[in-house]
UniProtKB/TrEMBL annotation, chain A:
A Pfam family this chain is assigned to: zf-C3HC4_2
Gene Ontology BP term (one): ubiquitin-dependent protein catabolic process
Protein name: RING-type domain-containing protein
Residues covered by the RING-type domain: 199-237
Region (Disordered): 93-151
Annotated PANTHER family: ELFLESS, ISOFORM B (PTHR47094), RING-TYPE E3 UBIQUITIN TRANSFERASE (PTHR47094:SF1)
Species lineage: Eukaryota, Viridiplantae, Streptophyta, Embryophyta, Bryophyta
Presence of the UniProt keyword Zinc in the record: yes
InterPro entries noted in UniProt: SLX8, Znf_RING, Znf_RING/FYVE/PHD, Znf_RING_CS
An MF annotation (GO) of this entry: SUMO binding
Organism expressing this protein natively: Ceratodon purpureus
One Gene Ontology cellular component: SUMO-targeted ubiquitin ligase complex
Assigned keywords, A-Z: Metal-binding, Zinc, Zinc-finger
UniProtKB/TrEMBL annotation, chain B:
Pfam families: UQ_con
Occurrences of domain UBC core (ranges): 16-162
InterPro entries to which the protein is assigned, alphabetical: Ub_conjugating_enzyme, UBC, UBQ-conjugating_enzyme/RWD
Protein origin, superkingdom: Eukaryota
Listed name of the protein: UBC core domain-containing protein
Role: Accepts the ubiquitin from the E1 complex and catalyzes its covalent attachment to other proteins.
Protein species of origin: Ceratodon purpureus
Keywords: ATP-binding, Nucleotide-binding, Transferase, Ubl conjugation pathway
Amino acid sequence: MAIVGEYREGRREREAMIVNLEAKMGQAQTRGRSRRAAEVRLEVVEDSMHVSNSGTVLGMTSAPIVVDDEDDDVVVSSPRSFAQAVLRARLESQQPTRHAVTEDPLELRLGPGGGISESSLRTSPTQQPRQGRRGRPARPTIDLTTPSRTPPVNDDCVVILEYAKSRKRKNPVPLEPAFMTEVPPITPVQEAESYKLNCAICMDTMKEETSTICGHIFCRNCIYGAINSQKKCPTCRKKLTLKNTHRIYL
Amino acid sequence: MSSSGYGQKEKVLSRIAANRLQKELTEWQVNAPCGFKHKVTDSLQRWIIEVHGAPNTLYEGEQFHLQVDFPEHYPMEAPQVIFMQVPPMHPHIYSNGHICLDILYDSWSPAMTVSSICISILSMLSSSTVKARPPDDDRYVRNCRNGRSPKETRWWFHDDKV
């Protein structure tokens, strides 16, 4: 289990986060989770509160802080904080208006913009769209724990592979298989034409570009033939074996 | 032309060799090396090239002919390059037209072209200071009487000044 908290200024967010954490704690308890996990999470709340109260936020106003409590040896807790948390949880259970928060399942969020405050944001209506670390709009996170198999609608995922954008997905498919199957085969000829490289041996367009360790590029078949016949680089005459070549991908 | 009779086990060019030679010929027609002229023949496998002695050298105003025969696995193997009659008087060119030039034999590289060979030969001619046959010309030509290819000769490249 990982807890992702955020140092934020402003009372509303802090409250929202506490609410969220408590909700989760309550959930964990009802599921019969270990009490220790709850204690650790409470400690996180305490810390974040403390920092924002004192106003010395060490240049990390919006960066998510990930506290991973998988290591059982490290347990930081105090009876006082636990008692407080229990009290809050009880108060919480008496206020039905805030129960919407608890509908979110306990999530492990991965990714640059991930944070549990995703759910807590909904409790604060005046919240502005969050900004990422470098001022860009925060990316939606890919939630790996939700049971649904539909891929998240996420432009950032598609930008990496340009052709993926143009293709229309008629049937939503699981994310990983989609990456495996949607890559169209790029033939070596197409690849080389975009760079307009000619092989010094065949003088034709480069096919399956292969570099020697001395840095000269030829077609794969051409350099293999040259090494087999001469055991030297055709350009600089360096002694070569077939193992001294690398297929390169431009 | 006695030089055309050299017995080369002529095998038809491989597809790779033919493609490459076609490209070389196209490139030559666009951008021929200075002082050379390709004489059109019906065969891609044998080129006849006219060589003009460079100005301000011993061979200024003279004209020679190179015969270039391409092996089946060109450019992995070097082409056979000889001067047709009459070869220039040069310390590295035998009277039977054979040329003692390392890039035609041991130092051939598949990245070389007919064009680069021509430039090397013209450079070799231009740097000559004396018009003379190699000292062992008689002996060598006698040994090659049966029409041996210069590629069968075990060359000894001892003089890098010319």
